[in-house]
Design brief:
A hairpin with a 2-residue loop joins strand 1 (about 15-25) and strand 2. Helix content is about 15%, strand content about 40%. Strands 1, 2, 3, 4, 5, 6 and 7 form a seven-stranded mixed beta sheet that branches. It contains two helices and seven strands. About 30% of the residues are buried.
Length: about 160
């Protein structure tokens, strides 16, 4: 039976990936993505989970590789779908991004690995229309900030980012 170009192969599965949500002094750490999905857009540092690696380990590793920032994984708190479509509309990749709230330990953000840039953004600026964010970044950042402020949850570290 022939498939439409929009119908994914039933043998394919979403690719699990971890994203690091780092909140520091009412700012969130984001990277400008170099690769699909969402190349050129701002999103959380993250990437595929390696075989034998925990979600938390993957989040910490990707955070360091993409930003030079060290963090401590504290809590898995949500998941987001990320779809990479060809111009034809065909689904090329489907990632399942597992968000991990991380406590800032140190380091100055700089784009590395497959991130073009890394910067701290004020949480209240995430809804600006001129900021090219990946899908659900503002919502996930606000949820992470709320968890970071919750008694018994992690405490954001450090002072106001530069």
């Amino acid at each position: 039976m022939a498939r439409s170009p929009r119908t994914p192969d039933p043998g394919r599965r979403p690719i699990p990936a971890a994203i690091a949500v780092v909140i520091r002094a009412q700012h969130v750490l984001l990277v400008r993505r170099a690769n699909p999905p969402d190349a050129g857009r701002w999103g959380f540092p993250g990437g595929k989970i390696d075989f034998g690696e925990s979600i938390e380990q993957a989040a910490q590793r990707e955070l360091l590789e993409e930003t030079g920032v060290r963090g401590e994984a504290r809590q898995v708190f949500t998941a987001v779908d990320a779809f990479d479509h060809a111009l034809s509309g065909e689904l090329r990749q489907h990632f399942l991004l597992v968000a991990v709230l991380c406590r800032y330990l140190g380091g100055e953000p700089a784009g590395g690995d497959d991130a073009l840039d890394a910067q701290w953004f004020p949480l209240d600026a995430l809804d600006a229309s001129d900021l090219a964010l990946s899908h659900d970044v503002a919502r996930v950042a606000r949820e992470g900030a709320r968890l970071a402020r919750t008694p018994g949850a992690i405490t954001p570290g450090g002072s106001r980012p530069p």
